[in-house]
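hey
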């Protein structure tokens, strides 16, 4: 099955908007949180954004499915824990990202999630 140019551009633009949203979120978290440190190399920052966007696209839905009863019981607040876990895993495996402290991890998760929601929703409006 061959994708037409329209569908290819829609898929590519969704991927690009997700990458851009995570990139801006990571930069915003690094700007506002002194204990959230990223590498000063643009390629490293882009790689962090790509890995975070991929983990949110692939791993997060699986974790949300597994923990859906807990998410329902906590009225959705456990989804923040899942996002924090994914950000912590990225910090653990990437030398270009350093998060010091649980409070910084929580605030960074909230900042990145907020920026991702704002940019993602504006990207969906422009794609429709």
């Amino acid at each position: 099955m061959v994708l037409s140019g329209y569908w290819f551009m829609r898929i590519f633009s969704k991927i690009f908007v997700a990458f851009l949203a995570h990139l801006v979120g990571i930069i915003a978290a690094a700007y506002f949180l002194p204990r959230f440190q990223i590498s000063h190399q643009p390629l490293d920052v882009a790689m962090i954004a790509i890995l975070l966007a991929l983990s949110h696209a692939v791993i997060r839905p699986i974790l949300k499915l597994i923990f859906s009863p807990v998410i329902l019981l906590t009225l959705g607040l456990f989804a923040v824990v899942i996002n924090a876990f994914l950000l912590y895993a990225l910090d653990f495996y990437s030398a270009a990202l350093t998060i010091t402290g649980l409070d910084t991890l929580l605030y960074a998760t909230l900042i990145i999630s907020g920026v991702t929601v704002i940019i993602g929703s504006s990207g969906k409006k422009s794609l429709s």
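The two ends are 24 Å apart (CA to CA). The chain has one domain: 5-127.
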